[in-house]
Amino acid sequence: MTEASARFDRICATLRDRICLLDAPPGTRLSEEVLAAEFGTSRTPIRRVLARLEAEGLVAVRSGVGSIITDLDRAEFAQVYALRQELTQLVATLDPVTPTPAHVARAAEFETQGDALAAAPDARAFAVLNRDFHDFGLSLTGNAALREVAERLYLRTARIWLQAVARMDLGQECAIFADEIRQTHAALRAGDARAAALIRRSHISMSAARLAQVPAPAAG
Length: 220
Prior knowledge:
By secondary structure, the protein is mainly alpha-helical. It has helices at about 5-20, 30-40, 45-55, 75-90, 100-120, 125-140, 145-165, 170-190, 195-210, and strands spanning about 30, 60, 65-70. It has 2 domains: about 5-70, Arc Repressor Mutant, subunit A (Orthogonal Bundle), CATH 1.10.10; about 75-210, Four Helix Bundle (Hemerythrin (Met), subunit A) (Up-down Bundle).
């Protein structure tokens, strides 16, 4: 990887985190000039980064305004979550990877983190752990196209939970997530990547159902 490619990936990852963790909320304008100064680069690579984020659905370019962080409406949210469920199941059938000792060891680390989260619930820590666990789940398929599509859909929905959590039972959500991780670890110890994928699919489905019951915030 070239230095320019590494810098591009680093800036993309930083801005994705800001958007998905709501450090930069929907409606925020992303200034090419400000970002170029922050990352010590010209505006050209910043434009490439913003184009990538636009392709991922995180940013919209508005004429005369610039790049604005998007939001996800409830109708689109339901459709994206339904598709995520189906793609998660495909992890087990399209070029599945046989779980290795490294996979099992990583799952054990996640289980420890999940138990700690359940003991001390924190919305931001949940979001970060969920993102890392999602990436880990995609490592169980060798299908690069599937990983790319699943990642983009995940990014489209990542903010919904953080937006809704103030009106949910955070302790319960963290306990449910810890249980999902525990079940996944057990499936991988048994060498069953298909079971791990089906566990993830089930939890995505139940998570979507719980989120659908949370009323949308009142318009300001």
